[in-house]
């Protein structure tokens, strides 16, 4: 199912993104490769890169919501390109802020070209995301709809910045509540997914009120998606998720199960107070989390937001084959083990 609708949109989306990025001036040597590199098109030598560096889930999701709301998805391609460029801007800057050296199995932009160049490349991706939206009129999107899309897009950028601020702040904050954590993840991946769904529906219907159930559906789906990641980050199978299940605890990541555990167990607080954790600490932490049913707590929260997502999706009432794909897509995300 997922592969089917990916194939439906992939070629046109890629062509549209390249058309937008081609606006990068040739008068700035090296800048073009710094932008194309995080998008997965080239290597650091500006040679074609043959491997996948991302599934383009967000723009595909926008196009799927557009079609499910009764639109012609071709009309939404510049919007889809915009959200993917915005997403990659956030990744380039996140990697700098998190000191991350590897993404998609290759060096991050700042590791190749240094932090100042990476900041500038990220800024350019951000500018290109707006340049892509500015071309929606070429696809016949009415001016009043474009203005509504600008409103959603600008608010989403505020939310992404708020979420990233909280994420960084929580790293040095000893006490983070579950509600604060949900607020933080609402302002990160969930906010961008919500914008994708709402913008797709807006282009299809031209009706802001009719787009709101799509926004709420995707916001709740995004929260459930992150909680599923948190569960897999501790109890997932290493061969399936592609990283050790110990990684999240070794890095003392404050995921939802851990935050619940820190509120319930002084022993876990003592472990997380250490400067560095070893394998024995990881094992002890997992056993403590198991003893207080932290996994069950997280699964119940995931179910809560999944149910809310389905309620909003029912209100949105997606139609046709795209509507069926959308419901299947949500079910697959909820059941995933990767």
How much of the polypeptide forms β-strand, as a percent range? under 5%
Largest sheet: 2 strands, antiparallel
N-to-C span? 17 Å
State the shape.
Answer: globular
* CATH superfamily annotation of the largest domain: Farnesyl Diphosphate Synthase
Description:
With 338 residues, the protein is mostly helical. It has two domains: 1-57 and 71-140, Orthogonal Bundle (Farnesyl Diphosphate Synthase), CATH 1.10.600; 142-338, Orthogonal Bundle (Farnesyl Diphosphate Synthase). Helix content is 72%, strand content 1%. The chain has a two-stranded antiparallel sheet. The relative contact order is 0.11.
Short description, anyone?
With 338 residues, this protein is mostly helical.
Q: Secondary-structure map with pairings?
A:
Elements (H helix, E strand, L loop, with lengths): L1 H20 L9 H6 L20 H12 L8 H22 L3 E2 L2 E2 L1 H5 L1 H19 L9 H29 L6 H9 L2 H17 L2 H28 L2 H4 L5 H4 L5 H9 L1 H7 L6 H13 L2 H23 L3 H16 L3
Short key terms for the protein model shown above:
17 helices; Farnesyl Diphosphate Synthase; single chain; mainly alpha; 2 strands; 338 residues
